[in-house]
């Protein structure tokens, strides 16, 4: 058997955990949108609620792509891009929370570097995907 196609249960589990995280976060954008509206960077055009809904829909779509083995490689790449794309919102939140309690300020700033392991995990999910899909593996 080709070892590059051997199922990796740990990679599958990791991808499904990422999918779960993104699904919960995406659903929260619709169920409780106000906190997400508040961290939309003010430089973006349009209404914050529009960006909240767009980012929630993107998280749900990427979660679905990660959950399905056939689209997992593309889902991993998309997840990495999504985690990088929401980084400005995390920075906006940290900047806005400078007058909050020290614990909340620390939590807000802690979210910023936490994007790094999420991106790394997403890329691992893309590289560990065993299903057929159209996204080429990087060289």
From TrEMBL:
It comes from the Bacteria. PANTHER family: DOXX FAMILY MEMBRANE PROTEIN, MEMBRANE PROTEIN-RELATED. This is DoxX family protein. It comes from Streptomyces cinnabarinus.
